[in-house]
């Protein structure tokens, strides 16, 4: 497969994953699927915008670069088109690194939130985090510590888990593009055979 075609496939997949991450982060602003009257009652990690910034907008930059690599020859260099394509593939490695960092940010935020659990109204009529060190993950009976919003525990757990999985997939795809970019830099676009410079 051509390195440019491979990059385009990775770009399309990253854009799709970015849209899902963006949507998941927006849904976190509606705990339990309901509008909340006080934004101070939202989990702290929701405000870090891991899905909107890290796996969302920041991932769109490398994804769009990957989409255009098949056709980008950087106007050639020294009159040699292949040289321009190689430079474009080399630059994709930098953008893959940016994407990896964005997905890493979303991964860390999501992991912290899954381990910490949601902010909710507890038995003592105070808002806080009733779970410690992910204890609620193995014991569903503990979920009753959250009285309001209704169903906030599975809501947060599912959405932050989705963001966690998306971040892992995005980091994997960016790593694949680093390898693909190195191959494209060293050997050029392999369609029609390797071109010697």
TrEMBL record:
<feature type="transmembrane region" description="Helical">
    <location>
        <begin position="87"/>
        <end position="112"/>
    </location>
</feature>
<protein>
    <recommendedName>
        <fullName>Transmembrane 4 L6 family member 4</fullName>
    </recommendedName>
</protein>
<keyword id="KW-1133">Transmembrane helix</keyword>
<dbReference type="InterPro" id="IPR008661">
    <property type="entry name" value="L6_membrane"/>
</dbReference>
<keyword id="KW-0472">Membrane</keyword>
<feature type="transmembrane region" description="Helical">
    <location>
        <begin position="12"/>
        <end position="31"/>
    </location>
</feature>
<feature type="transmembrane region" description="Helical">
    <location>
        <begin position="46"/>
        <end position="67"/>
    </location>
</feature>
<comment type="similarity">
    <text>Belongs to the L6 tetraspanin family.</text>
</comment>
<keyword id="KW-0812">Transmembrane</keyword>
<dbReference type="Pfam" id="PF05805">
    <property type="entry name" value="L6_membrane"/>
</dbReference>
<feature type="transmembrane region" description="Helical">
    <location>
        <begin position="157"/>
        <end position="179"/>
    </location>
</feature>
């Amino acid at each position: 497969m051509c390195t440019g075609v491979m990059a385009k496939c990775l770009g399309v997949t990253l854009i799709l994953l970015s849209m899902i991450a963006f949507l998941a982060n927006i849904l976190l602003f509606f705990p339990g699927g309901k509008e909340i009257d006080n934004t101070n009652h939202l989990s702290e990690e929701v405000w870090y915008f891991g899905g909107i910034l890290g796996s969302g907008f920041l991932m769109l930059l490398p994804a769009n670069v990957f989409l255009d690599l098949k056709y980008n020859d950087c106007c050639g260099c020294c009159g040699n088109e292949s040289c321009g394509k190689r430079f474009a593939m080399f630059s994709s490695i930098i953008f893959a690194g940016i994407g990896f960092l964005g997905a890493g940010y979303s991964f860390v935020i999501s992991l912290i939130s899954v381990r910490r659990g949601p902010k909710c109204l507890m038995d003592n009529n105070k808002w806080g985090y009733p779970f410690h060190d992910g204890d609620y993950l193995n014991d569903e009976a503990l979920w009753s510590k959250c009285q309001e919003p209704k169903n906030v525990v599975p809501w947060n757990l599912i959405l932050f888990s989705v963001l966690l999985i998306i971040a892992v997939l995005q980091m994997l795809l960016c790593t694949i593009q680093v390898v693909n970019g190195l191959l494209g830099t060293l050997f050029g676009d392999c369609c029609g055979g390797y071109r010697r410079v």
